[in-house]
Design a protein that fits this description.
About 40% of the residues lie in helices and about 15% in strands. It is of the alpha/beta class. The longest helix has 14 residues. The protein is globular.
């Protein structure tokens, strides 16, 4: 590990919160609404993390029904699925320790930004983050690389500005976190308590993997 951790970009789903229950039930609702066969639990779980409009066609949703599928999903998600969610054990303490250490932290999630903000407010986590960046509802900004670009542009325009790339790190649980960050020259620490398949983070190029928030905290505070 060679980079310092002056700016930490956190993914949300599978990294800070266990959002799978609400996302899975909302995806199942969308399938039922469109009269499509609901996938098994393992397939539903794979929807957590990547942009929904990317995952849905891979799992049987015809392109011509994609707009209706997204609309049905959002009905269920806003109606309660959004908050069928929980903060992973140890995350609150970790964020508090990082804040006390003066670390700059932001959110970079493929979840629509409007929903990410509501979730972070719901869980009383917003004070830890300098900026909350996410996808747009029209999916024009949903790829993780575009979300990170959006975050970095906003920070660059702020009074604090941006540190050098080698002083930033991404923290996420899926390969798209790693690959999206690499497009900007940013390394990723992968967390194994999220939704990645075995070997996924390593194959994508994560520079380290951690199995609990305390271990992540150690990485983020001890790397010079």
């Amino acid at each position: 590990m060679t980079t310092s951790r002056d700016l930490i970009l956190f993914d949300l789903d599978g990294t800070l919160t266990d959002s799978a229950p609400g996302i899975m039930e909302s995806v199942a609702y969308a399938y039922r609404t469109l009269g499509l066969e609901v996938p098994d639990a393992a397939t539903l779980r794979s929807f957590v993390g990547p942009p929904l409009h990317v995952s849905a066609p891979r799992h049987g949703v015809p392109e011509e029904l994609l707009v209706e599928f997204l609309a049905a999903y959002r009905v269920a998600f806003v109606d309660g699925g959004m908050f069928n969610n929980s903060v992973y054990d140890g995350i609150r303490n970790m964020l508090t320790e990082l804040s006390m250490a003066g670390k700059r932290m932001v959110i970079a999630t493929s979840k629509p930004e409007i929903f990410a903000r509501q979730i972070l407010v719901h869980f009383n986590l917003t004070d830890h983050f300098e900026f909350i960046g996410g996808a747009t509802l029209d999916t024009s900004r949903s790829a993780k690389s575009l979300v990170i670009e959006h975050v970095l542009k906003n920070l660059a325009a702020s009074d604090a500005g941006l540190p050098a790339t080698n002083r930033m790190v991404m923290v996420g649980d899926r390969e798209h976190d790693v690959l999206g960050a690499l497009e900007h020259g940013i390394e990723t620490i992968g967390v194994t308590w999220g939704y990645a398949e075995p070997g996924e983070l390593e194959a994508a190029g994560a520079v380290a993997q951690v199995s609990e928030p305390l271990e992540l905290l150690w990485h983020l505070l001890t790397t010079p």
